[in-house]
């Protein structure tokens, strides 16, 4: 099995990955995500009444805060957050790389590396850091947790249960307005002949365009510095979009389109390390094409030579 999943940017990543895990709580939806939601509810439900109260939720978050606060000084820094996440990524990679006989031990190490998500961390850090001291206190984290709880308590009964784990209506990371809608948009972008499906040639053409955008110096290879530049470009585009007034329709639309393009490249940047199978710090066009073809075959679940809307976002065993 080829392990060069790809640089492909959101050209493949957004198309093929239709859901994003919500911070510190269960993913919404049915099937596999619904099962995760039910398992998370069961874990947080301390009094076993079949639902999670705000107090139960905050108790869990307080325990998570203590895990992140490595030096136990009552503040979580960006470095502590990064260290926790890096440890989890390393443990997850170890599971993927482990021989069958070592899988169980690797999975135990992965469980020990959790949790790796903390309310207010990541891109929400600056907003959660209300006193602007560059760290997160437990009170600030719990304030962010309360907002998450309010969003998840869709029926507003003061608790989160399986009813709240159903697909959300409207926009969001899950449900039609979120990941699925983005995936369908990406499918449309790749479908250059507008026949409602993506051929292997169309997938490869989209991957090639992404590779060429990353290859800033046009030397036929993509280096880590070029990937990092795309990440920075996304941050700049996101900041620009936020600063445009909602009433300035034309400027806001232009900023939104720039952000969408930058987001595609950011998602491609996330795939860099996995695509760089030989770990030489660069990706060649040949490596990208091999990865794109392998990914296409994986996602073409019925083997008809096309990826259709009903195959978007599905995960299949190789």
Automatic annotation (TrEMBL):
SUPFAM superfamilies: EF-hand
Superkingdom of the source species: Bacteria
Stretches that traverse the bilayer: none
Biased composition range(s): Basic and acidic residues: 158-167
Domain EF-hand: 32-67, 116-151, 178-213, 263-298
InterPro entries for the chain: EF-hand-dom_pair (IPR011992), EF_Hand_1_Ca_BS (IPR018247), EF_hand_dom (IPR002048)
Span of the signal peptide: 1-26
Gene3D superfamilies: EF-hand
Start and end residues of each stretch annotated as Disordered: 158-182, 297-318
Gene Ontology molecular function: calcium ion binding
UniProt entry keywords in alphabetical sequence: Metal-binding, Repeat, Signal
GO BP terms in the entry: calcium-ion regulated exocytosis
Database matches in Pfam families: EF-hand_5, EF-hand_7
PANTHER family: 45 KDA CALCIUM-BINDING PROTEIN, RETICULOCALBIN
The protein, known as: EF-hand domain-containing protein
Lineage: Bacteria, Pseudomonadati, Pseudomonadota, Alphaproteobacteria, Hyphomicrobiales
């Amino acid at each position: 099995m080829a392990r060069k999943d790809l640089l492909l940017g959101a050209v493949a990543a957004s198309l093929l990955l239709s859901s994003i895990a919500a911070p510190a709580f269960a993913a919404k939806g049915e099937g596999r995500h619904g099962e995760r939601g039910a398992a998370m509810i069961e874990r947080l439900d301390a009094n076993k009444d079949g639902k999670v109260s705000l107090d139960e939720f905050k108790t869990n978050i307080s325990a998570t805060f203590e895990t992140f606060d490595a030096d136990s000084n009552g503040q979580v820094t960006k470095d502590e957050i990064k260290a926790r996440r890096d440890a989890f990524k390393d443990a997850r990679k170890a599971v993927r790389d482990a021989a069958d006989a070592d899988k169980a031990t690797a999975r135990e190490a992965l469980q020990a590396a959790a949790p790796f998500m903390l309310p207010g961390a990541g891109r929400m850090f600056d907003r959660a850091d209300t006193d602007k001291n560059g760290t997160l206190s437990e009170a600030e984290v719990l304030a962010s947790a309360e907002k998450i709880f309010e969003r998840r308590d869709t029926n507003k009964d003061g608790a989160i249960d399986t009813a709240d784990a159903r697909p959300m209506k409207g926009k969001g990371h899950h449900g039609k307005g979120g990941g699925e809608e983005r995936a369908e948009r990406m499918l449309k972008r790749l479908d250059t002949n507008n026949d409602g499906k993506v051929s292997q040639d169309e997938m490869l053409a989209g991957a090639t365009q992404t590779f060429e955008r990353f290859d800033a110096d046009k030397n036929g290879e993509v280096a880590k510095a070029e990937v990092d530049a795309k990440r920075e470009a996304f941050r700049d585009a996101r900041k620009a979009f936020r600063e445009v007034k909602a009433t300035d329709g034309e400027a806001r639309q232009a900023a939104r389109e720039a952000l969408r393009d930058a987001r595609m490249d950011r998602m491609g940047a996330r795939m860099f390390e996995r695509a760089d199978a030989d770990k030489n710090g660069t990706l060649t066009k040949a490596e990208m094409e091999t990865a794109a073809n392998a990914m296409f075959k994986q996602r073409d679940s019925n083997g008809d030579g096309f990826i259709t809307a009903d195959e978007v976002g599905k995960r299949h065993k190789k």
